[in-house]
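pls read this protein.

:::
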Amino acid sequence: MKEKLRQQAREQAREKAETYLKDLSIEEQAMLLKYESPAIPKAGIPEYNWWNEALHGVARAGTATVFPVPIAMAASFDEELVKEIGDCISTEGRAKYNGFQREKDYDIYKGLTYWSPNINIFRDPRWGRGHETFGEDPYLTGHMGEKFIEGIQGDDEKFLKAAACVKHMAVHSGPEALRHEFDAQVSEKDLWETYLPAFEYCVKEGQVEGAMGGYSSLNGTPLCGNKRLITDILREDWGFEGYYVSDCWALRDFHEHHMVTTSPEESAAMAMKAGCDVNCGSCYNQLMKAYYQGMVTEEEIHTAAVRALTTRILLGMNQETPWDQLDIQDVDTPDAVSLNYRAAAEGMVLLKNDGILPLDQKKIHSIGVIGPNADSSVVLQGNYHGTASHFVTVMEGMRKAFPDTRLYYASGSDVVNPRTERLAREYDRVSESCVVARASDVVVLCVGLDERYEGEAHHISTGECIGGDKEDLHFPETQQKLIDAVLDCGTPVVLCCMAGSCMDLSPYADRAAAVIQTWYPGAEGGQVLADILAGKTAPSGKLPVTFYGGDYEIPDFTDYSLKNRTYRYVEQGVLYPFGYGLTYGRAEVISAAYDSESKKVSYEIVNHSDRAVEETVQVYKKNRTSKWEVRNTVLCGFAKVCLAPGETRQGEIQLDEYAFTVVNDQGKRVQDGSDYLLYVGTHGPDKRSEELTGTKAIALDIKF
C-alpha cells in the first residue's frame, strides 16, 4: 500500500513539475539542470544548490554528528543500525536546511539532495576512497546501502525527508590519480556479478532518488555519458525514476582527457543524450549552445528538467512537510551521541586477543598510550565529514575509562613524516615511546593513517592531480620504526590500527597481545575504544574486506578483473578473512537447516560465555557443479544477534531470489545446476577463520 501511495505522490509531483515548466522557455528549463540552479521568480521556483554530502553525517555545513565512516558501518553487519544512522542524518539535515532557508542561505552543502551513499565495490585495498564504501561484497554493500537510503529518505507517503544518491555508477574504485582519464576494462560477468548488483538492489528495493556517475570510462565510454548504464540499465531495466547527476566536472573530462568529444557543448550533449539530468560542473552552461547547434533537442532538455523538478517537489518545494518544525535543537542531541557511540562499538573489529582484553584494572596500574593517532581528532573524522561539537580522542577516552590508572603518553612519531621537530634527527619520538613502554604494564599503540593520506584525489596549485591511494599496504616507515621499537620493549601491546582499509599487520600480529581495527570511528571513537579496552563494552564487528598479508600478490591496481581479489576469488592464504572478527565472549552456531519452500535458513546459536554477546550469523553458498560459480563462496545472508550469558537462541535468515544463481560469461544471472552447499556460522567457511576462532561453519547439503 505504501509503495502505491508513494508512486501516486511521484506522479502528482511530476504533474506539478510540468505545470511549473509549461510557461518557461527552453533556456529557463536548462537553467534548472545546473547544480547551482538559479531562482525563476515568474514561475515561483526558488534558488537551489544540488550539491550536498552526507556520507557519515551531514558534511561541510557546520555542526553535525560525525558518525564512523561507512566501512565501519559495514563492519557492524547491522542493517537496522545503518538505517538509524541514515534517519539521524536526515533529521539533522532537515533541521539545518530549515535554518538555512530562514536565513535565505542557498549555498553549496545547504540543500536536501545528499550525494551519498557510495556503494562502489572496495575491490583493491590500496584505493584511498575505500572507507567511503560498505566493503568488497556486493550483497553486503547492497543491503547496507539500501538501509542507509531508507533512513535518509524516510517513510512518509508523500514527501522525501531527504534524497539519497547512489554513486559512482558503476565501475569506480581507483586509481585516484588517473581517474579523469582512466578506462576500466570489465567483462560482462564481472560487471553483473560484482559491480552492478548493489546499485540494482538500491534502486529496486531502496527506491533511491538519485544516481551519480564517475569520472572514469567503462570499456571506452565515460560513465557520465554512458547511455547503456544510465538509460538502458538504470532507467529501462531497473525502473529508476529519480534524477541522474554527473560527478563534479566529469563532463569536462570527455573532451579534455577521454577525448571522446572535442568541446564543452559536445560533452554536454553526450551526457544529456545518455540520460544525465543535472550537471555538477560547468558543461551545462553550454547546453543552449549545443541546442542551437542541433546537438540536443527541446524534448531532451524538458525531460531532464521534469525529472529534476520532480525530485525537488518530492522534497517539499513550496509545500509544508512533516519536518518543517525541526530546528537547531534537533542537531547533535544526546540520542545522536548515543547512536554514534553504538555505531563505533559495533564497527570496531577485534582481530586478535591472547586474553589480555579486557584489561584488568585490578592488576594493571600503568598504561602507556602511544602513537601518532593516540591523541588525534583528525583520525576520528574520515573524509566528507561535518563539524562535530566535540571529539573524544583515544587519550581523552582513556582518562575517563581508567580514572585510577597511571597513564603515560607519547606521540611516538608523525603519521608519515620521519621527524616531529624540524631540527631533530629522524624518528625523534621513538626513544620517548620506549621509555613510556618500559614504565607501563601494558601499551595501547595507536597507529595507522587519516583522511590526509587515504582519501580522494585532489589537485595541488600546479594543477597536478595527487591521488589519495596507498602505494602499498605497509605502514609509513616512521610508524614501522615506532611499532617495532615498542614491540621489542617486551611490554604487552594492544595494537590499534586506525585506518580506513587493510594495512599489512602480518609483521606485528604474532608479536602483539591484541589487535583491534578501529577504522575512522567518528566523534565518539576514542571513548568507545577506551571502553572496549576497559571491558565496559565489547567489539562486535566483522571484516567487510579481506585483510591480506604482506606477501600477498595483489593484482595490478588498474586491473578490474576480480581474479585473485576479494574473499570470493582469493587464491592465496590471507591474514584475516572477510567476515572474521572476535568478541569478548564466545558464541557458536550449533545447528542449522534450510527450508526450500520459504528459502529460509533456520539456525540455533549458543553463547558459551558468562557475558552478553553480540554476534553475526552468516550464510554463504557454493554451487558445486556450475562452471560459472565464483572460486570460493558467496555471502547470501546475515543477521546480528544479541545473546545473554549462556543463552541459546533460534533464528531465521531469509535468502533472496538470487541466492541459488550464478552469472555466466555473458553477464546473465541464471540457475545452473542443483547441487549446492550452504554454510552457516559466525564467520566464513574458510580454513583461516576456523584456525583463528576454533569453530567451523555448519555445512548444509542442498539439492533441488
Observations:
- The first helix runs from residue 2 to 21.
- The longest strand covers residues 613-623.
- The chain is about 30% helix and 15% strand.
- The CA atoms of residues 56 and 249 lie 23 Å apart.
